[in-house]
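A further point concerns the way the authors explain their paired sequence and structure data. An entry of this sort, consisting of the sequence and the corresponding backbone structure tokens, reads as follows:
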Amino acid sequence: MKVGGTHYRSIWRDGDSGEVRIIDQRWLPHEFKVVTLNTLDEFAVAIRDMWVRGAPLIGATAAYGVASAVTRDPSDANLAETCEVLNATRPTAVNLKWALDRCKSALSPLAIESRAAAAWVLAEEVVEEDVEINRRIGENGLALIREIAASKPEGEPVHLLTHCNAGWLATVDWGTATSPMYHAQDAGIPIHVWVDETRPRNQGALTAWELGEAGISHQYIVDNAGGHLMQHGMVDLVITGTDRTTARGDVCNKIGTYLKALAARDNKVPFYVALPSPTIDWSINDGVAEIPIEERPSREISHVLGMTDAGIGDVRVTPEGAGTGNPAFDVTPNRLVTGLITERGICEASFEGLAALFPDKAG
């Protein structure tokens, strides 16, 4: 995707220096910063403290982190420690463990002197696979938007609602929930996107920034406005992302997604989830019971980051000493999900639906 007319990915390896660089998302949408990650600690902090965020991007960052670490020390002990440190950064997004397991299983059998080169090749494979997965999700999701557009008067936009940022900033490129939107724009289909603010970190502002850079019509709304818009027939389709999806199609995504699914069901609005296959956790079925939900720091609730007269800074919005609770994710049961948009097609949210598209993985 583009920033100021220049193409960027959310993470990349510099072709000249070999350094891994990221867009530091802590400062968006107020300031665009690129930083370099070198040490294992820097990769771990970038994931834990959300310099990078979004399940696919976390996985890609972890793969680069392993490559960087084994370049310095390719020993078995360091490979194991690197995977352990990175895996401990965030518990919910399954792509993190998926990427680390892939790296460990591929590198462990290799001779010590071969690991560094192989690790960089593997990291690039993870990155390029993510780009292609999300491009194909966009193509498949475009069919839904095209169908709705065909039922509308000519020139009337398809109204989409999304929650959090499942855009290219949450992946390497294209995004998951936003990929069908970008494809619709490229196809000349008029769309308008309702962008949930997504407290507490207001990650909807990242989606608004992305869409603004792409010239896509959108409005930034408070989280609780979605149900109201659906009641008044102002939403044609809801598309969200996912950080972990169970084998039966329960979807874990940013806190508040479950409430959007309930509102969509009550108002007969289709609720779809853009699902890259690496986010499927085939080892679990009951998302509510089995998916660990990350509890994030209270300061994310008590303070809001924004632009002040003095620059970017925090403002406290709660009474001094007020207790907080900050679960980062919730689980939407499969019964509330109209369908899953994957790189291999669209299916119902069920084991049978997923297994039909991914028979090579469902076993």
Observations:
- The mean pLDDT is 95.
- The first strand starts at residue 2 and ends at 3.
- Residues 115-150 form the longest helix (36 residues).
- The chain has two domains: 2-128, 143-362.
